[in-house]
């Protein structure tokens, strides 16, 4: 009897517990539905708010357009006859600069969806320069130049007493815990660059040679295995695998494993998506909506960017905590030389995230574009292949020192940079207090000025046959003697030029030389031309399928 009673008591307790559980589940369900309703309500509120902001921005822009279009821009000779200096009465930009205000409204909202407008902007700007000349004012506070003189003035080293053009920090995300080498004022930039210079010095690069060679070998191993199986290879993906694995090792002491696994690491995929946020940033700040960027930019892109920085933070912290100062990677040099004038832990983490992007995506982009143009121009591919194969009798001979001697290869890369610059847009700087002349144009203070690479490199003002892939133009071919080769600055100029350019050249030369020495390349026909791409700050590259045929050589 007692056992039966205990069983009944237990059963009642169980039933009570189940009832309580169901009640709790019902409460949770009610709360979840309430949360969903609130989220939906909040989403609608934000959408309404966004539309109101867009309408207000459009209204302001239309008003500004009407004001500007009502102004008459005097020809220079007429201005002189009237006794003026050729400047607008309000102290504005010199009158020869063409004002094209409607173009600023095109990227964000008025005429095209944001995605379409953002990805077309560089090409549209090139058309404006083609129509109006070397200087175009495309918003009331933005001027684009496509001359070497302007580029040197804006970005180059300044002689004593000359004014410097500070970075336009509106163009960079500001909700970061600290600054980085690309988002810092002059003083902080000098401090960070001094420390990072140890990691990118010629001595450091020689010490990192074995690391570079290791990933070049993995790259070649992956290509060889797939070539032997007769598989098509997406060479864009494999260039990305190599560049991300190498920079992962050098920046954080750990590769992504892309080359060994033959696929993208999730982190790498997030980098590609997250970079689009930079394009939205550049547009919305020009509309005065910088405080609303997080709301206006696509949530998936914001999430990808933040996840990239979180990955970088975790990896950098692990590397810092290891306290290893002997490995041949960037962090060893940073930790070894870090002193009271060095970088804080937060700054090291922030710069690690920057180096992952700057040291990978841009290198792979240039290799991809160069390979595409070589495949489209078989005579150039044959000429480069012959140079490489005549210079080396074995793969082991292809070293950093030796590939530096290949003149036609350097010309090929220069032409690749010209036709497919990894950073196609212009990185804006602000004109100094009191204003300044740029290539003969007076620019008022606090005006954003830039030299956009793609429009400059495709302009007939700078190059003959700008749409033709002609490496010979960089080898003193008399047909191209009039080319303004000084305009080419893919790594920028001056004190803020790319600190990793020597590493980039080393990686690019070794990968391309090794591949062309061992394989014959064949393009795989596709429905869409690979070069038909969008630009969201960087190129949105698709896959470039090729076939590789291993060269059969007689054994000596």
From TrEMBL:
It comes from Fusarium oxysporum f. sp. raphani. Its cofactor is heme. The lineage of its organism: Eukaryota, Fungi, Dikarya, Ascomycota, Pezizomycotina. Belongs to the cytochrome P450 family. Signal peptide: none annotated. PROSITE patterns: CYTOCHROME_P450 (PS00086). One of its GO terms (molecular function) is monooxygenase activity. Residues 70-84 have a biased composition (Polar residues). Residues 1-69 have a biased composition (Basic and acidic residues). Residues 1-89 are annotated as: Disordered. The keyword Mitochondrion does not apply. This is Cytochrome P450 monooxygenase aclL. Keywords: Heme, Iron, Metal-binding, Monooxygenase, Oxidoreductase.
